[in-house]
Amino acid sequence: GNSVTQMEGPVTLSEEAFLTINCTYTATGYPSLFWYVQYPGEGLQLLLKATKADDKGSNKGFEATYRKETTSFHLEKGSVQVSDSAVYFCALTGRGGGSNYKLTFGKGTLLTVNP
Amino acid sequence: SAVISQKPSRDICQRGTSLTIQCQVDSQVTMMFWYRQQPGQSLTLIATANQGSEATYESGFVIDKFPISRPNLTFSTLTVSNMSPEDSSIYLCSVEVSRSYEQYFGPGTRLTVT
Asked: What is the rounded CA–CA span in Å between residue A60 and residue A76?
């Protein structure tokens, strides 16, 4: 079945530091890949997505590139802010068969950014 | 995108009772989903709710424990039945918009069972 593995947290950075959160996946077919963010006390928000190999998703200064050869979708940001403190989830949607619309999530990575 | 609301936002319930969670969307959607997020954990899909048909449950979840209704294209309910402390979780509904494979989530219902 489909699975997502993302780096264990927590991750603690200083403001303006560079961020990388690693995500790798296992899936059949050609999944769409997502990063969701959950701010404290809130629901999940879609941060960015990529639907095919070599696509780059970007939003709010965050980027991730769909790498089929390494089955990865690492999240990066060049300069984090305190307001980026949240839990980040990597996810994929299976295509085809009975798993067309099922989102499979990684375990989440807690990011804390200190001023 | 879509704007999704859930009621209640939180509740504290006694074991053995049931709670019905409502999910309302501001536009018509075909696919609605219910997830559980246990404390400090990731999200697990409970079931997919399509209007006009029975909900499809994931392995480990059964209709008797989590009955779902989907009376129209903007509304769904999830009932957590005969609750135990192990049911203490955040329950989230989501919708898929325009066959884009993107899902948008409600704010969640934080349930504590004592």
From this structure: 11
